[in-house]
Amino acid sequence: MPQAVVNIGLVGHVDHGKTTLCEALSGIWTDTHSEEIRRGISIRLGYADVTFRKCPSCDPPACYTTKERCSHCGSVTESLRRVSFVDAPGHETLMATMLSGAAVMDGAVLVIAANEPCPKPQTKEHLMALDILGVKNIVVAQNKIELIPREKVVENYNQIREFLHGTSAAGAPIIPISAIHRSNIDALINAIEERIPTPAHDPSKPPRVCVARSFDVNHPGARPEKLVGGVIGGSLVQGKLRVGERMEIRPGVQVTQKGRTSWQPLTSEVVSLQVGDESVDEALPGGLLGVGTKLDPALTKGDRLAGAVAGAPGSLPPTMEALTLDVHLMERVVGTAEELEVKPLVTGEPLMINIGTTTTVGAITSARGNTVETRLKLPVCAERGSRVAISRRIGGRWRLIGHGIIG
25: which DSSP letter? Predict the structure, then answer.
């Protein structure tokens, strides 16, 4: 099976059917954690790969499918490209998780339920997050059309079009679908193929992985000789990664020597690469992958390395414990029923900062106009000039208020 070449996010308000749509597209139900099953919502980022295919005999959009044989004429379909879907949680308390997922998205499907007024708070917040993080290729899926009469579907469609006006998704195709009944999925695939291209990557650059998850894959009670090293999961954003290569991971782990605390990068060897359900010797950018290492599994257990950056030793950006940001604030807070005015940042204020797949909290040590200096609770590995998402504590929740550029 070929490697996925593009990461597409499924984003939007809670309970608008993102995970159901992911299953309709890929056949995979991504909510597998016990708490997700108990509560009926996505909590962690979910991943699913699927190959988009096209029937050579049928006309668009009926020709688009994920099946090897066309359900209309029975012809053998042709492979177009393999796609990785990133199912992001929509609950307001999980915005940091959504922002981490958006960092590896090349495009997104904004899922909006037809049976509720548009826009809902997290519909606005997720669209703003995509804009801030530079995800411009967007398709809108108007889901749950089976629940309301046709005239209400049209009314909701017009609400969506009005909401998108003046945003980064203005002009995005709006595809009415029923994910649970697998209705109009071919038209959605058609829109994705036209709107979300495969990004160009430079394979000559040093490999770099944005780490979104990390695991200990050993079973309790495993014998010492059967233990394997920790696994990191994420997206290769540049270069090629091969089994047998050395890898550096930053920021790494916190160490104390002679009473002083510092962060020490980790180094290891790539012992395996997993792309989808396949083991490969070499991975290219696009899609999501698992990297087996020789690290102590205690270092990777429970997403301990989530947010790190991995790559060729000596090629990674520096580890920063403080940031100077050129800040650009929004006019109003999104994600709340009452959209409050965004007030200027002040010295001493805590901020949540998202850089790539990293989420950290920092305290403002100096605020001078649009220039803000912050001291971070957890350090980050990032390039100067990188864009970061900034959230402020409002009403007991972190709310997205703007973005900054690392100086």
Answer: H
pLDDT, block means (10 residues), the chain with 407 residues: 84 85 83 42 67 96 95 94 83 62 86 93 87 90 96 97 92 96 96 94 90 89 89 91 96 84 92 88 88 94 92 94 94 77 93 89 93 94 91 86 91
208-311 against 319-406: fold identical? yes
Q: In the chain, what are the domain boundaries?
A: 6-195, 208-311, 319-406
Q: Which CATH architecture has domain 319-406?
A: Beta Barrel (2.40)
Sign of CA dihedral 151, 153, 158, 162: positive
Angle of helix 18-26 versus helix 185-195 axis, rounded to 10: 90
CATH of the domain spanning 6-195: 3.40.50.300
Q: Render 151-174 in DSSP notation, one character per residue.
A: HHHHHHHHHHHHHHTTSTTTT--E
